[in-house]
Amino acid sequence: MKFPKPHTLSQIANLIQCKFVGDSDFQVLGMNEIHVVEPGDIVFVDHPKYYDKALESAATIILINKEVSCPEGKALLISDDPFRDFNKLTQYFKPFKPSSVTISETASLGKNTIIQPNTFIGNNVIIGDNCVIHSNVSIYDDTVIGDNVTIHAGTVIGANAFYYKNRPSGYDQLLSGGRVVIKDNVDIGALCSIDKGVTGDTIIGRGSKLDNHIQVGHDTVIGEKCLIASHVGIAGCCVIEDEVTIWGQVGTTSGIRIGKKAIVLGQTGVTKSIKGNATYFGTPVEEARVKLKELASIKRIPEIIKKLKNI
């Protein structure tokens, strides 16, 4: 997430009332999670296990809960609770703005686009030409939708990320300030949920087709011409490359990559990244031919035990 205009390190420190290490005029351009940071971004870290990863990342401002040596060319924001202060920055730069109308006056709708009754379109939404948005669809703020897109009834675009910190008082949500971006020629079925990025974008690539009842987690990127069948659950921060086929009731863990032209058979649990141009099945996931051989061998166990008893 980029700020509307550059800020200085001292300005950001003042917003969250914390100490800083570095030039007070050090330029701050935005804030992002570790997997999408760029120079000029703030990244937060609150666990020693990830200190080095954050300090060595592309981010040039590290919001951290310990005074450490500052890498050359970077700056630190020293906070007793980086998670809390990252949320403060999201609230400041991307505050929730309630709507009082069904279609926001700041939304942009393209030529020949049809919006069916009872659909909600939030602030700063952009929808391209020749789209059909069916009834009872909710499109949250800042969503970007290309041309020739169809979204069926009951789908929710842009809900918050499922991202929480476990505190003694209960679960504390990491606020979402990102977007959903849907490219041209995408079809999305009924009752799907596509969550926005925490600070970046959740992306559905050009020409991809999603069936009914699909969950796409925050910051996930789905490539071009993918086919995803019903009841698939894709966790946050996944990368699904081009022309992947995912059949029904597949689930993934977060942060995995599925390679180009992979086929994932129904009810598979994608527990790790998998390469393209192959077919996969099972939990934990394996190439289908390997998994099916394993299942065939398991069926022979009673026969093998019986033979052993007769020896």
Structure description:
The model has no long low-confidence stretch (mean pLDDT 96). The termini are far apart. The chain has helices at 9-16, 51-55, 82-93, 288-299, 301-309, and strands at residues 2-8, 19-21, 27-31, 41-45, 61-64, 75-78, 108-109, 114-115, 120-121, 126-127, 132-133, 138-139, 144-145, 150-151, 156-159, 164-167, 170-173, 179-182, 187-188, 193-195, 201-204, 209-210, 215-216, 221-222, 227-228, 233-234, 239-240, 245-246, 251-252, 257-258, 263-264, 269-270, 279-281, 286-287. The chain has 2 domains: 2-93, Udp-n-acetylmuramoylalanyl-d-glutamate--2,6- Diaminopimelate Ligase, Chain: A, domain 1; 108-293, Hexapeptide repeat proteins (UDP N-Acetylglucosamine Acyltransferase, domain 1). β33 (279-281) and β34 (286-287) form a beta hairpin. Helix content is 15%, strand content 31%. By secondary structure, the protein is an alpha/beta fold. The protein has 5 helices and 34 strands.
Write the layout of secondary structure elements.
Blueprint: E1 2-8, H1 9-16, E2 19-21, E3 27-31, E4 41-45, H2 51-55, E5 61-64, E6 75-78, H3 82-93, E7 108-109, E8 114-115, E9 120-121, E10 126-127, E11 132-133, E12 138-139, E13 144-145, E14 150-151, E15 156-159, E16 164-167, E17 170-173, E18 179-182, E19 187-188, E20 193-195, E21 201-204, E22 209-210, E23 215-216, E24 221-222, E25 227-228, E26 233-234, E27 239-240, E28 245-246, E29 251-252, E30 257-258, E31 263-264, E32 269-270, E33 279-281, E34 286-287, H4 288-299, H5 301-309
